[in-house]
């Protein structure tokens, strides 16, 4: 890895976006959220967006090789 490069990942699992209701029935979305999320529901975009904003900011300049899920 070149010096100065950073690599981080955010993988929140199922998210409550407009794509889920189009691709499957709402009951299935709720079931997946209960099974795959420790919170028991799909994540909302507003709940996970701050992680992306933080990782792209200067405040996270020393954060490297982290996986946030």
TrEMBL record:
Gene3D superfamilies referenced in this protein's UniProt entry, alphabetically: NAD(P)-binding Rossmann-like Domain
Cell inner membrane keyword on record: no
Keyword Disulfide bond (UniProt): no
Chain intervals for the UniProt region annotation (Disordered): 1-22
GO MF term set: oxidoreductase activity, acting on CH-OH group of donors
Protein name: SDR family oxidoreductase
Family classification: Belongs to the short-chain dehydrogenases/reductases (SDR) family.
Pfam families cross-referenced by the UniProt entry: adh_short_C2
Record InterPro entries: NAD(P)-bd_dom_sf, SDR_fam
Lineage: Bacteria, Thermotogati, Deinococcota, Deinococci, Deinococcales
Domain of life: Bacteria
Organism (species): Deinococcus metallilatus
Signal peptide: none
Keywords noted in UniProt: Oxidoreductase
